[in-house]
Specification:
This protein is of the alpha+beta class. Helix content is 16%, strand content 47%. The protein has four helices and 33 strands.
């Protein structure tokens, strides 16, 4: 049928439809271009050459002190196998689980490891795995995607969101694990042990037409936004069931029970400090700790009961005992190739070398933010970040060692350090890939073993 043979009304409707489609594609294209421009500009900060000092992954100190074995390895299916599996599933949400899990395996690392009721749970954005003590797979868990509305002006489109930023394995109640994830756009999401979402809060909707707004409007919108900055899950009131804690910009800290009922609220304009739920003083009751300096310690009702002027690190924290068997909370900082740990009274508990955690970059580059030439910096160092640590019994009748895992920001390397009680570095290995999580597993004879989660491998370390 020729276009000229259609009625004028039909021609007008078709013409309007073509214009709307063209307009939509134009808006979407502009949005993609803006995002591409932004990430292309900062690519220099995240795409780096490996410095010569970090080129060879190997044991630098203590060769023979630990025995290293491969505990678990991710299996990655090819594209056709993944597509075949997804087409066998009639439900769109289930298809998204399968496809996104395989895609994520090529991008993300293991994000968390935890021992639960004698089993090891390992999780990443690709899903979670329940392993027996020998590293054999017992169960795979895929996370439920959430439906997200993407707006372009008046037009709305639903899509499945699979982002799982800041993913953690959490205890929902005694001997029952789950997962929690939060981000500025996705809000705070809590999943059960099967990967099903059981609670969410604070999600932000996306309107791509806002990309056309001038800087003033974008700044005003940001100032009014209440996106999630931090979150935590843990038992605050001692009833054996965990609460959900959410910190939002231009709002504050809110605590909810597992049914979503708000228990208390503390106003705060920008509560961005990392939140810990921990028994800080060893009295059997957990407190909510806002890390930083000074650190704020809140009770189950939200009242500030202590301030620790010396501060608490966002990354490396552990508990030990003093000579009177009293629990002492210790906080550590890794800076300028040295690890320093101090207790709440500012007393140095451990001070040791941390070689190759801060080295000159091979290709220093200046990064400038788009449309903001005044915001620029020179990235000339390769540094570790978001370090993790565990205390581990590697020998019977000896004080526990401190094992520290430190991953680099922009290169596929990580340092594993082990210190004795005097701060002596007894083991140092440069790992061949990103590694962001570490855990302790009880072993025979009253000793422990260390698990380290990397890009797609979990290694086990044990005393020989």
């Amino acid at each position: 049928m020729k276009f000229t043979k259609l009625s004028p009304k039909t021609q007008n409707l078709l013409g309007c439809g073509v214009l709307l489609v063209a307009g939509f594609l134009g808006l979407a294209g502009y949005g993609v271009w803006k995002l591409y421009s932004f990430f292309s500009n900062i690519r220099a900060a995240v795409s780096r050459e490996i410095p010569d000092e970090l080129a060879e992954a190997k044991v630098f100190r203590g060769d023979g002190f630990l025995r290293k074995t491969e505990f678990f390895k991710l299996t990655k299916e090819d594209l056709f196998t993944t597509i075949g599996k997804s087409t066998e599933t009639p439900d769109e949400k289930e298809r998204q689980k399968i496809v996104q899990s395989q895609i994520a395996k090529g991008i993300y690392n293991f994000a968390d490891l935890r021992v639960v009721a004698g089993r090891i749970v390992a999780a990443g954005e690709f899903g979670a795995y329940v392993l027996d003590p020998a590293g054999n797979l017992e169960r795979e868990i895929l996370f439920e995607p959430t439906v997200r509305k993407i707006k372009i002006g008046w037009y709305e489109k639903e899509s499945y969101e699979t982002n799982l930023d800041n993913l953690r394995i959490v205890e929902l109640e005694k001997n029952r694990f789950g997962f929690a994830s939060f981000g500025s756009m996705q809000g705070f999401r809590v999943f059960d042990e099967n990967g099903n979402q059981i609670w969410s809060y604070g999600r932000e909707e996306t309107d791509l037409s806002n990309l056309f707004d001038d800087e003033k409007k974008q700044r005003e919108r940001y100032e009014k936004s209440t996106h999630v900055l931090e979150a935590a899950v843990g038992d605050l009131d001692g009833d054996g069931v965990s609460e959900y804690v959410v910190a939002r910009k231009s709002d504050g800290i809110r605590v909810f029970d597992r049914d979503g009922r708000e228990k208390w609220f503390e106003e705060d304009e920008f509560p961005s400090r990392r939140l810990l739920i921990v028994d800080l003083d060893g009295d059997g009751r957990n407190e909510l700790v806002e890390t930083g300096s000074p650190a704020k310690v809140r009770d189950a009702a939200g009242k500030i009961v202590r301030k620790i002027e010396n501060g608490i690190s966002e990354t490396i924290n552990f508990q030990t005992e003093d000579k009177n068997k009293k629990k002492v909370f210790v906080s550590c900082i890794l800076d300028q190739n040295r690890l320093t740990c101090r207790d709440e009274n500012k007393q140095t508990v451990l001070d040791g070398a941390a070689p190759l955690s801060d080295v000159p970059a091979k290709n220093p580059q200046t990064v400038t933010m788009p449309d903001h030439p005044e915001i620029s910096y020179t990235n000339d160092r390769e540094r570790t970040y978001d370090e993790r640590a565990v205390r581990v019994a590697l020998a019977k009748d000896r004080p526990k060692y401190l094992a520290v895992l430190a991953s680099f920001i922009s290169i596929p390397r990580a340092d594993l350090y082990v210190y004795d009680e005097k701060g002596t570095l007894v083991y140092h290995e440069l790992l061949p890939e990103d590694a962001e999580t570490i855990a302790v597993v009880p072993a025979a004879g009253g000793t422990d073993e260390i698990l380290v989660g990397g890009k797609d491998t979990i290694w086990k370390y044990a005393a020989p």
